[in-house]
Design goal:
Layout (H helix, E strand, L loop, with lengths): L1 E4 L6 H14 L4 H6 E7 L8 E9 L5 E11 L9 H29 L10 H7 L18 H13 L23 H8 L4
Parallel strand pairs: 1-2, 2-4
Antiparallel strand pairs: 3-4
Length: 196
């Protein structure tokens, strides 16, 4: 996978540290690593987002989805005030773990379960395991960022599969003012098995 620093603020070794964080420290395998085409670091100003994940479907000769090509974008603006380089990298790793949570979960749901990830809510099994309901949670941001099922599962991934300190403070968890308990071992197993 490529990593592009459009800010010019990181050394090659620091960029490699971010790439290695995915392969060495997060839940990943050969397919999702291959499907991540690039990580891009850019200064997008006070956009309200620290990172995002986007993808395009890859189709086989029969016009069936057999993979994706994805990009993770990290917004340098929100780490710019941090002068200590390692602390800056650590903050980016936290965001990267969340965005890779989108990559792992939504890629496999799209490719293996044919879920239209932007138009359909997460599967019933996830809603049941996580204690979500259609009244309070949505497939999109219509009920708020913290009520979007895609954001919840990305935070679940981060809190379950990123090493400390990058797994701390689940953004929808009660410790951060949210309403959800930390994800259970059943949720962990569900996420782990999405690639099967």
């Amino acid at each position: 996978m490529q990593i592009e620093d459009n800010t010019g603020k990181f050394t090659q070794a620091e960029l490699e540290e971010l790439v290695n964080f995915i392969g060495n420290d997060l839940l990943s395998d050969e397919f999702d690593l291959e499907w991540l085409g690039a990580i891009k670091i850019r200064d997008s100003g006070p956009s309200g987002w620290r990172g995002y994940w986007k993808f395009k479907e890859h189709l086989d000769l029969n016009n069936q989805i057999d993979g994706i090509v994805a990009v993770i974008v990290l917004n340098f603006y929100y780490v710019r005030p941090i002068k200590d380089t390692q602390k800056r990298l650590d903050r980016l790793k936290e965001v990267l773990a969340h965005e890779y949570g989108h990559h792992w979960t939504l890629s496999y749901l799209r490719v293996y379960q044919s879920l239209d990830v932007w138009r359909e809510r997460m599967p019933n099994e996830y809603y049941r395991l996580r204690g979500l309901n259609d009244r309070d949670y949505a497939r999109d941001y219509s009920k708020g960022w913290d009520r979007c099922d895609k954001e919840i599962i990305a935070e679940d991934y981060r809190s379950l599969f990123a090493p400390a300190p990058y797994n701390e403070e689940h953004q929808m968890g009660t410790s951060c003012g949210g309403t959800l308990e930390l994800p259970s071992q059943e949720v962990k197993k569900y996420i782990e098995n999405l690639n099967k």
